[in-house]
Amino acid sequence: MSSSGQVGGGKAEAQAAFARGLEGVIGGQTAVCSIEQDKLIYRGYEIHDLAAHASFEEVAFLLLEGHKPSAAELARFKGELVSERSLPAAVAGFLDSAAGWLASGRAVPMDALRTAVSILGHTDADAQDNSAQANLRKAKRLLAKIPTVIGHMQRAIEGRPPVGPETGGDPALGHAANLLYVMTGHRPGERAARVMDASLILYAEHEFNASTFASRVIAGTLSDMHGAVTGAIAALKGPLHGGANEAAMEMLRQILRDVGPDGIGTPRVDEWMERAFAAKRKLMGFGHRVYKNGDHRAGILHRLGREMAAVTPGEFDGLPAGRWFDLGEQVQRIMLQKKNIHPNVDFPCGMTYFTMRIPVPQYTPIFVAARITGWAAHVIEQHSDNRLIRPLSIYTGPAERAW
């Protein structure tokens, strides 16, 4: 290998092919998802169509089993998920033991979820089997159990017993509604369940994003499904990826603390934003590596969240639900006017989940509850036609020298 890091090629060729962050580089082929400037397509179905007309279980079936389910197939799939919701004792015990770390801040929910998924690998009889059939079984178990992990973890943080531990919640509730139930102990209304369901659809898959690519790199070594998903969770934790929805909401809370409730809709928010621009502060929930004209998922979730906020009583950190969306929309306008940057789906997600009274540290774990479908579909695809993913690099260290 030459010092350029390219086998059989010169430095000029390597530098010509270099793209920082692999931007614009095609990393492989997939039949799972296609991203275009004005469309996001899951196995041939566009995201607006899915968000309006499908349930999350239908979308999960589409991604994992490869086609739109019939009524009988959907009923079978839902039954499989419900039967796999409960947690092994080892996982439940770990989550109980982790409550102190989480409460003290030494760990965050994404850390606990990552470890819980890793432990699930020890309890799964198919753990070391990378066949398509075994991978599909493991994918369904992870899809079913991750919401239960999130709910058990949140209840442990609050010092409360888990909700329905023997069944992983309420078998009569759908996937999204049960996720809310095991977190809060309250069965959600129809509107809240539908908004959560739609958010899971929007987050379910997104082609070769950082966490999905990480999962494919791990699967490409012929490592197992649980190992690939554990690595994907670690990648999703970062604020430049999945953690952006938490960071976006914390930014809005900071703006409110600084300008006060009466500052919403006034130049004080503009002034706050100008100071952030001057300090070169990274404002989370805006911009996207692929979408240059705006993330169309953001508009879908913003509309659903805004509609729910309009009929949600009570205050949230001292503000009615609708006022959080007023503040968010003002920030969006400033970003577009001053920087020509559109919001991505994480920005309305932060406001929507906040006005559903979901604890902010659980936003990214909920992202996992959706994206497990996309990750698992990609792991199955990688294993079905595998080639080790091994890119080259350009060496930037010192020239060769004697010791």
What would you say this structure looks like, in words?
A 3-stranded antiparallel sheet has the order 1-2-3. The chain has a two-stranded antiparallel sheet with strand order 4-5. Strand 4 (315-316) and strand 5 form a beta hairpin. The longest helix is centred in the middle third of the chain and has 26 residues, at 132-157. The protein has helices at 11-17, 47-53, 56-65, 71-83, 89-104, 109-123, 132-157, 175-184, 190-203, 210-220, 225-236, 244-259, 267-278, 296-310, 321-339, 346-354, 363-384, and strands at 33-35, 40-42, 45-46, 315-316, 319-320. The protein is mainly α.
CATH superfamily of the domain at 40-208 and 372-384: Citrate Synthase, domain 1
CATH class of the domain at 40-208 and 372-384: Mainly Alpha
Q: Which strands sit side by side, in order, in the main sheet? A: 1-2-3
Q: Return residue spans where pLDDT drops below 50 for at least 5 consecutive residues.
A: 1-8
Query: How would you characterize the largest beta sheet?
Result: 3 strands, antiparallel
> In total, how many beta strands?
5
Mean pLDDT: 93
